Batch of 2 targets.
Target 1
Amino acid sequence: MTSLVTGLKECNVDLGQADFFITHMHADHSGLVSTLVGEGAKIYFGQADAEIIRSSTPEHWERMIDFASKCGFPREELERAVGNHPGRRYSPNNSLDFCILKDGDTIEIGDYLFECIETPGHTPGHICLYEPHKRVFISGDHVLVDITPNITLSSEGQNPLKQYLMSLDKVYNLDVELVLPGHRSVFKDQRKRIRELKQHHQSRLEEVIAILGEGNQNAFQVASLMTWDIGYKSWDSFPPAQKLFAFGEALAHLKYLEDEGEVSRQIERRGLIFFTGISNA
Ligand SMILES: [Zn+2]
């Protein structure tokens, strides 16, 4: 909180007069808004993420625990991971009044006229802002330069990786001079970075197919066999929260492959199992 307020002061931001724009619901992008917002200030937010924040109830987390445990996540570790989950501990107050932004809406600030671009994938309601005359793109966690945005499936019925890849295509042709992302450094060549991100997910999909080629697995096992570049020696030494992120990412890739007809699932006594090919069930 102190660092953020100090940083805003250095930029001459008068918090008493500020409106807020939130790219997406993750706590590291939205958590302090309830504390910072002044009377009458607007908080711009995407529809789908606003709904998730409003429905962030204990039942929501229970449903998530049930689904993950059905997919092989050990119950005890799961409860520890969810207990420490930043979305649970640091999300903004769910009774806030949001100004919902939709694709094509504009926000005018001084010389800048930002266009709102819905970019679902990293979260269902992720939004970027584009200023076509200044050629500035505020990418949130949609396009990052040194790290790949986490694409995670947290409940059934979604295909977040498919949405994410479509959202990358959606912004690929924008004429962008400067990208202002939500993490790490600003950068210039958005198209090159988008090509790299697409290649990254293609390689991950191939890795998941290769893992399932060794035998039927649940999503937790698939996650444990994927390669992760996050500085731990082995899967067993990952903290539960990191296992949960990895598990969500594995599930997102499995769901994508399932919708493409390359992977199938079946319910067995040990839970939900994935395998390559078409189900004969
Ligand atoms: Zn995020």
Target 2
Amino acid sequence: MAEMGIYEAMRTLKAVRRLKPDLIPDDVLHRVLEAATWAPTGGNQQPWRIIAVKDREKKTRLGAWYSERWSAFSKLYRSALSADMADDARKRMTRTLDAGDYLAQHFGETPVIAIFCFNPKQMAITDAKQNRPSVVGGGSVYPSVENLLIACRAEGLGCVLTTLLCEVEPQVKELLAIPEGWGTAAAIPIGYPVGRGHGPLIRRPVSELAYLDSWGRRLA
Ligand SMILES: Cc1cc2nc3c(=O)[nH]c(=O)nc-3n(C[C@H](O)[C@H](O)[C@H](O)COP(=O)(O)O)c2cc1C
């Protein structure tokens, strides 16, 4: 079984969008799916399920829908690439969009597409009445997604959390026989990376994102 330091795994868990079609051994797939089950959920209800899609025809359909949604989405991003953007930021965004194009072209060829489903009736959504979009329900799904991503990292598998297929949820539900009352939260294409795969991240420093005692007050 793959073992690596948890901090090393988190520090290098990049979105990997160039994935090989090579098969993932069943025991490896089982381990990364099991890692998802260890995540916390409200009241320990585990109101989520994963459909690990390996069927070629189903993946082709998912790939076609993903590609269609990506093409609309990426157009907006490409048009936001402006000349007055800092050079390295523009290069970074162009690289990400190129990798996104690659994923869109090959989405259906990845060996496994993990579709995360959730059931809101099994969730205590404590912020449902606030005058803003509710996020608490997602807290009983996305920690499982993150566990799966970290486990993939440890196994040397590339992966990326995607949500564009949520825009065509009714079609996805029909294709995968997802029952009434369940929704879709994410689609994770998983495969061995084409290139270097995971690596160092670009993130804002903790001093900008975490405060001490009140909003905006810097940590020591
Ligand atoms: C909620 C959420 C939705 C995302 N949806 C997509 C998606 O549909 N397609 C995609 O290519 N990446 C998607 N991503 C991946 C992000 O673009 C990526 O995590 C972010 O740009 C950081 O990239 P990095 O980890 O390589 O630095 C999503 C990430 C999150 C957290």
